[in-house]
Every structure is written in C-alpha cells, then in structure tokens.
Input
Amino acid sequence: MARNTVYIIGAGASFEADLPVGNSLKDEIARILKMEFEHGSFKDGNYELYQTLRRHTNNNNAEVNEYLQACRHIRNNMPLAISIDNFIDSERGNEKLALCGKIGIVDSILKAEKRSKLYFDQYRGSRTINFSALESTWYLPFFRTLTENCRAEDLAKRFSSITLVIFNYDRCIEHFLYNALMTYYRLSEAEAAEIIANLTFIHPYSTVGSLQWQDRASSTVMEYGGEIQTHQLIEYAQRIRTFTEGAPSDSMGILKSNMKYAERIVFLGFAFHRLNMELLSLTDVDRYENPAAIDCYATAFETSKSDQESISSSISHLFEGELKINIENMTCSKLFSDYSRSLGYA
Output
C-alpha cells in the first residue's frame, strides 16, 4: 500500500530546470520595474508598464507617481533584500508597492518558464519536452519514482496518496508531469489531466496562471512560458499572494489534514523561511499528533552543519511522535539518487 507522502517544494527545485532564484530573480525584477524620466518625459526602461500604470489609475498623475516611486523603491533595494517576498513583507500594508512587486514576479516567472529546460514551442513543431535535457535534474528520477511498477490504470490509486505543497509561483511540476505521462503511457490530453487530478497540488501563494488543461474557464489561463501582454500584468499579479498575505483558508485546511496523516515528508529545494514554516504548522502552540512514524528527507544545499541542526529543530517542532529526519547538503537530483529506495513506492 502506498505511503502517504507530502512533498514540500521550494525555489531550489525549480532552479534545476533553470528558473532563477536569489540574486538572479531580484535582478530580473529590478530590470522589469525600471522606468526613468528626464525633465518630466519618459527616458528609459519599461515604457509599456508605464502606460499600463497610467491606464490602471485613469491617468491620475499623483497616483501614477506613487506607483513609480514604489517601483523605484523596489529596484533600489533589491540588493539589500533576502527576496522580493521579504521586501514586500517589510512594508506590509503598502498595496501599491505589493502590486508593483507582484507585477515583477509574474513577468519574470513567465519569461523564466520560457527559457527553462521544460519549455517547448508547440507552435513551431515541438511536440513535447526534451526529456534528455533533464538528466541532471530531479524531475526524471521523481517521475520514475512515482511510476515504478505502475500501469496507467494503477496511477490514480498511487497518486491519491501524494500531496505536493509548492511554494513557487511557477508551474514546472504540473507541466512536466502532464507531458511526461502523455509521452510515457501514450495518453491523450484528457486522460493525462484526469490522472494528474488524483494528485493533491497546493500552491499556498497561487501561481502566475492556470495551465490550459487545468482550468480553461479561468480568466487567468496562461500556457507554460506563455507570452503575457503588459496590459494583462495587473490582473495576473492580483492573482498571486505573498507570505505577508498568507494562503487562502480552503487550501490550508487540505494542507494541514494531509500533513497530519503524512507517513513521509520530502523537502525539495525549500529554504525553511520562518513564515513558510509557520504556514506549515498546525498552530503556534500545538503540533501534529501523527499516528504513524514519519520519515523525513530534506535537501539543504550548501548549508552548514549548524544550519542543518536548526532546520532539523524547525521540522521537529511541527510534529509530536516519532520522526526520523534526514537532512542532506545536496541537490534535489542527488537526494533522489542517494535515497532512491527510501523515496520509492514500489
């Protein structure tokens, strides 16, 4: 019988597919929000965003200037910030600054998806992902783990025991699994989507848009790596949340229920930021009383022994009961390689 497994996934996991993290992401957001003026006239930067902000404010010059000041403030302080989310959190309640930051997030993530190893251009004859390009990533061993000894008709049962809590705004995992299932099992689009629906996906802070096969009726449907028009950015930016705003209560109920009955937890590319760990916890004072012993595996790439001990303490604080924690200074790909049997389902 498949073990109830919760994967908790952070930006380091998407990095293996060439999405930006850390300074690279902050630099890209700063570039997107660049709008410079000279003698009251636009001089350099993102002119389309400037026009979008003018339309958003009905050409209210005073309000436009507030948005421009927010963009400038974000750009100037990206080198000092841990992340764009942390910077927005430092001015919680500043809605204009939050919206400008989210515009930078959405635009940069969609551009990054298009540059990633997972992207293919279906309009130029490409039929699916170049899976050979993913050999050095965790995506292929993850797929092999999920599907080992499984026929297509067996996948629904196995997938029903799996929860993926994805703290990223991108859609890398959904996009990969959908295309991998179609290729490997020779499934139709509808069949692959039906099987994936048995997995529980939780994006606490939402995503840059729904993939077409997920929700065609959504007003913010966006294909993986899709081109977004600048005038659409505000609508899509309003879809996402930062950890200042927290996650919607309906998804949190599912998350906490699945955490409570987890038998195995796998942290992949997760940074263990305090606010995100609080989101995973039951309450400030109570801990999950897990009925079964839990095996926990976590990547802590390029971290010290001291930090690994701190991470272990943070994980332990989530649960009562028996908890076996394995924290490794390695990439997500290496974790699947070194713990292939422990992470398997067969």
Summary: Residues 100 and 206 are 17 Å apart (CA to CA). The first strand starts at residue 5 and ends at 9.
